[in-house]
Amino acid sequence: PVRMQLEALLLLAIGAACKEGATSSPDTNDAEPISNLSDREGPPSVYRIMLANQIAHRLAEGLADGIGIRDISRQLGISRSTCTRCFSAHFGRTPHEHVASLRLVRAKELLLQTDMPVTALARAVGLSAPESFSRFFQAATGFTPTAYRQRGLKG
Predict the structure, then answer these.
(1) Backbone angles phi, psi at 29, to 5 degrees
(2) Tens-place pLDDT, residues 94-131
(3) Helices 95-113 and 80-91, axial angle in degrees (round to 10)
(4) Is the pLDDT of residue 88 over 80?
(5) How does pLDDT run across 1-60, given as a tens digit for each residue?
(6) Are the C-beta atoms of residues 49 and 110 closer than 8 Å to each other?
(7) What does pTM read for this prediction?
(8) Which burial class, exposed, middle or buried, applies to 131 when counting CB atoms under 10 A from its CB (0-12, 13-18, 19+)?
(9) What is d(CA 65, CA 126) in angstroms, rounded to the nearest whole number?
(10) 26-45 in b/e burial notation, b at 16+ Cβ within 10 A?
């Protein structure tokens, strides 16, 4: 209970800091409520670092559920573009690239450590269509999920 209260307070502080200087409502995805969030000179603020880490955590936690940056920006009460800029400035890649990397790592683990069918595995990494998962996996690794599993089991 105390941890949840602290997390709630932290999120409120992050949201308040990010809304500082807002020019439009946070529900407007094209709006930029913070001017130059990721382009400011000097070291990043504690709030921007905390926000970027909170976004990364929520992306990882919501991987199987297909939670994306739009969902997270709504939860935090800031624009989607602010979430993306803050995340990219801190981690050096977009949230989409981060999610793809998380999916690939998780898929490889599941392929080698379980006998889960590809259909279930696709859902476990947040992709509802097995065909999309297979194309994604093959583009990233050069192997189909089944070939990757068989190759991993042999060597």
Answers:
(1) -70, -25
(2) 999 999 999 999 999 999 999 999 999 999 999 989 99
(3) 70
(4) yes
(5) 555 556 666 665 555 554 443 333 334 443 333 434 444 445 668 888 899 999 999 999
(6) no
(7) 0.69
(8) exposed
(9) 6
(10) beeeebbbbeebbeeeeebe
Give the C-alpha separation, 94 to 90, whole Å: 10
Q: What is the chain's percent helix, strand, coil content, to nearest 5?
A: 65, 0, 35
Asked if residues 119 and 67 have their Cβ atoms less than 8 Å apart, the reply is no
> What is the rounded distance in angstroms from the CA atom of residue 20 to the CA atom of residue 35?
9
Sole residue written with tokens 């990494």: 125
What sign results for the dihedral spanned by CA atoms 124, 127, 129, 131? negative
